[in-house]
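Changelog note: in this version the structure field was regenerated for every chain. One regenerated record is shown below for reference.
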Amino acid sequence: MRARDLPVTLDGRHGRYNAITDVPGVEVGYVTLTEGDARTGVTAILPRGRRKVGLPCAAGTHSLNGNGEMTGVTWIEESGALSLPVMITNTHAVGTVHRGVIEWVAARHPGLAAQWLLPVVAETWDGYLNDINGPHVRPEHAAQAIEASATGPVAEGNVGGGTGMNCYSFKGGSGTASRLVGHGPDTYTVGAFAQANFGNRHELTVAGHRVGPLLLDDDPMATTDWFAPSGAGSVIVVVATDAPLLPGQCKALARRVPMGLARTGTTGSHFSGDIFLAFSTANEGALTSGFTVHDDYQSLRFVPWGRMDPFYAAVVQAVEEAVLNALTGAEEMIGRNGHRSPALPIDRLIELLAQDGAGAGSR
């Protein structure tokens, strides 16, 4: 089940898979861990695939709320470049995954590892369902997620780093979507990937229809005495495009992510770390900064700043749908101490949307 299967109208035109992998060269891989008290995992997003790890992409980041972590962002801010896989996991596994990326690069790209590595590892908190302090995620899981990365359709919901996550007090997790953008004679793709672990139930909005207040009856996270306030969690969003952009323009894309999240209802919780990364796979061979760079000059081709609005709109649209796809793709999960996270009740949701006339157009 995906958001497109609901009786709603979602803005924009999507790519073949309606996923971040519609951007040529981008690969996604997962490791999902659900044995014992583990409800967690690792997600890998490779901008240029395994073979081209180390070739920089223009990149930029933005933090809506800093109650979270994304390693490596100071170097991205300094250089405007991203050259390693982007990893997403749970809060207390960041160091483990960071080490796993280094070990994988050292084994597969030893020349790159001989210089310096600043892996990008982001997190959201899965402690409601997962034994977050347990040593469930190991360095080899990072390597396995990278090795599992592939183009094509992307699994959603209870997979990878999103395995134990909740969204609007329903089961959340991993979700993705894409949009096509025409620019002169060319067509480019903007893809978004969300690890969705945020939002209060009453806020939930689907394609402009505020359904959360009508779905309050089965909300264990609000009624279970387990210490964390409703809406705590975090969200990580990765935006990819093949449009030629400057690092500052990638940062501008990342700044538009909150607008897509807001379309799903959230107002941004203090206890939610909301951190975003955007990159462009164009201009391959530029933005290098290793010890062995011999170029006297490098050049970047880029979209004029005054023509960026369609790309901003694509980010907003793709992020909204990625979150909805995380919700529609997730299944109910029982985790540690019997904690239960119910799935979004699709049949009831369809009834509510039909009653509200969503099929005739949502906005």
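Spot check on this record: Residues 309-329 form the longest helix (21 residues). The two ends are 22 Å apart (CA to CA).
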